[in-house]
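Structural prep section.
Before we set up the soaks we want a predicted structure of the protein with LJ64HWYM in place, mainly to decide which crystallisation condition to try first. Input record follows.
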Amino acid sequence: MEFYSLNKQAPPVSFKEAVIRGIAPDRGLYFPESITPLPDSFFDRIEDLSPTEIAFNAIHQFVSDDIPNEALKNILANTLDFEFPVVEIEENVATLELFHGPTMAFKDVGARFMAQCLGYFSRNEDTQVTVLVATSGDTGGAVANGFLGVEGVKVVILYPNGKVSDIQERQLTTLGQNITALKVDGTFDDCQKMVKTAFLDDGILEKMQLTSANSINVARWLPQLFYFLFAYKQAKAKGKEIVFSIPSGNFGNICAGMVAQKLGMPVKHFVAATNVNDTVPQFMRTNTYSPKPSTATISNAMDVGDPSNFVRIRHLYDDDFEKLKENLSSYSFDDQQTRAAMLKIFKEDGYVADPHGAVGYLGLKTYLEDHPDTYGIFLETAHPVKFLDVVEETIGEQVDIPPQIQKVMDREKKSIEIKNYEELKKYLLSS
Ligand SMILES: N[C@@H](CCOP(=O)(O)O)C(=O)O
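Run finished without errors. Recording the tokens verbatim:
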């Protein structure tokens, strides 16, 4: 399997090279040359398969022979050693909980998978890889955790000062070892732009091997399709058509769900639910893609004004917007609506949703108004404890702190402040 650049100005590469490069030399995102549907028998007997078996069947065609089958199965077993339950909270409304991993966010899946792939590729080599990553909240912690102590890999995380939650900041600034956090005077989009600029900077590239652990990297992006299959396995017995509502920021998660659909998973429709950073809902209304500076919200991991992966979604639909609209609806909600939804879900359903999950819930309910005969699943992308102040203040109850989070509460936060790209470059070249 080869991966080509969506900018079409760079040569195709293997899975291994796409993972090591992160982004193509022409600044395009890598995309698989083909997506071959899995046989019907896979979906007919999916309930008999373990998470590792499901994931292996799904990812094998993309990894090809770059990682031998047994090693790939080991990587998958280590990646997926926690639960992905679908919890029904109302009739025909369920949530897929993606927060049972070490950093309590969906990013754990992609980060752990990618860290192990990179570890495998660099196992016999002396060269050092620098993983550069931008975060609006959850990616940073998951990448720090997934890559901690991986031989030959140094991780540099850029995050926007004052725009991530306290627990998110602790998760990405307290681990030390091969992980460094850079606190950026700006927004997530500024961080993402700096990362992408570094990938084109010959002055940096001639000194170090850089890669990205954002969902622009295929090894971070593609494994996110696994849990859509796990959800399908659990909801299949309902005998209804399934709609997924995905709280969306950088749009890698929903795009991975669409790859699962291309693999043959039956899905009636996708909903991309955003906060007021509504570049995609606006695009769906106007057919015009106008990125804008991001606005800070209580669902901060989705504070993205120029989502990297939307280009992959457009490509999946050959830029045919009418075809895309048949499969995707997109709605945006402000903080007031988000808080009202959190309170309603708590009072009426007895369920504590985090702000991102609440946005997903709102998107789902909007779609279900006109499509009541479907089974709706919204993704709970992170545990409510990661947004402790907002959640406790909104529902008026205390949230217990799980052991994974307790671990980082007393550690000292350490980060380096940077203001612009020049300071990032200076740091990279001096470290
Ligand atoms: N929501 C993200 C932003 C980066 O997204 P990614 O999936 O491309 O890493 C975050 O929490 O950092």
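Observations: The first helix runs from residue 15 to 21.
Flagged for discussion at group meeting.
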